[in-house]
Here is the input.
Amino acid sequence: MMGGEMVVRDSLSCMAVEQAVQTMTRERLEMEEIRQIVKNYLLMEFLPGEDPEALNGTTPLITGGILDSLATLKLVAFLEERFGVTIEAHEADVDHLDTIDAIAALVKEKRG
Here is the structure.
């Protein structure tokens, strides 16, 4: 192998790694943005006056009594409108909507 070919191959490898890092960073930022938007909505709509620090990614929303069935439907409507996704009936449940982290994962998956 000639030296020039090796430099080109190394440059291509570096570019591929850099692109992968940028993609992971974008995805991490997107997830964090989704989490923050959902958190802000929950605080404004269902927990006015509560300490924002008390609500984190793993706080149980449905099983913890923060969201009842009506509040869950309002959340689904918000998610569909804000993020341009469709939440199927079987997804509007505790498995998908009980925490901010689970909600963000669902929205991210739906957005592709």
